[in-house]
Fold:
Amino acid sequence: MEKKLALRQKNMLHQLTRLAYDSRKGYLYAVENIFNPTLKEIFLDYSSQRTAFSVELKKVAGNPGPFTIQGSYAGFVHRQWMNMRTLVARNESLGIINECIIAEKYFLKKIMKAEKLGFPENLNKLLSLQKREIVQSIALLNATLEFLPSGQLSGTTQL
Structure:
């Protein structure tokens, strides 16, 4: 039973590392494809958070085996979907923000699942910190959506 739990923990660490990579790449995509400078700054900050989480996760986890430095196939497909949605959307900001929210909710769900696996205290603290950052990002992105219908985020208008 203990061996099975250790394997589940190791697999979860790999999943979280891939998700952090996917999230970072998604936010970098958003930076490249959105015109609002305030949103660009926010997305760069979130990308940096995900990078820091990945680095800290590897450090705190010790050596659970080789971590992948690539994202998941699902993350790649999601970024391609963001690209297609941006091409056909009348309001690219709305589409990008919505896709970021979807991805963040998925990442949050995985972290909550990981918290139930009985990791050591230092890993649980890291998961808790990342969970808090994701919850905050979802809240800010949802609040930002409220400005979109009035055109507040088009072009170079500030928040």
